Every structure is written in C-alpha cells, then in structure tokens.
Amino acid sequence: MQNPMLTKSLDAEGTLVPYRLLTFGTGDHQVALASAVANAPAGVTGALVGEDGQRVDVYKVGIVEVEYGGNVTAGQPLTTDANGKAVAASPAAGVNNRIWGEAVVSGVDGDIGSIHLSFSTLQG
Fold first, then answer.
1. Which residue in 28, 29, 35, 114 is a FRET match for 13, CA 20 to 30 A apart?
2. Binning pLDDT at 50, 70 and 90, where does residue 94 land?
C-alpha cells in the first residue's frame, strides 16, 4: 500500500537502492543512503533510482514502501540501519534515534513494508 503525497526530484550522492531511507548529502539538493541512527531524515527512495549525480525521486510525505532490516511491528517508530533499511527504533542512553516514521504493516528483514513518513527524534 503506497500513497506518497509529496515527491521531490533531487541529486543522488553515490548509488541509491530502491525502497531505502535517505539522509541529506554533502551538497545542496543531494541525498545519500542513510547509514546511522543519527542521520537527518531526507526521505525514501522509490522503485526507480540512479547512480551518483543522477536525479532521483524522493518521497517526503505520505505512506510509502520501504525495505525492512529486521523484525518490525505495525505502529513501531522506525529508524535506519547501516544500509538504509528501516528498523525498529529503541531508546538507548545518550543516543538520539532520528525517526523516519511509523510502520504501517509488520514484517521481517528483507520485506518491503509500508511506512507513514513523519520525521522526528527519539531521545535517548
């Protein structure tokens, strides 16, 4: 189930993978694959992505598909793993998890599930 409400065309920094979480790149109008829970959320890639420097569609608002990187339960807040996959966020002392949104459906590692994009921070 997908219902993106806002899509922006931005430049890929590096090779992007379908259905992954993105953070801001080093330059204006660039996005890169998210790789750490502290990365600032920029959006989610769709099915069509590109190589370094190519324009890509980035979902910014709505319900979109994302690849899970572990066990996810519907309603859980989601953050990124080292590969831009969505994983359940869990508070840890001194760690601020940047949140891309909440899981719409449950799933396991490798599943393409749905996420309601709503960027925030889970304070640790």
1. 114
2. low
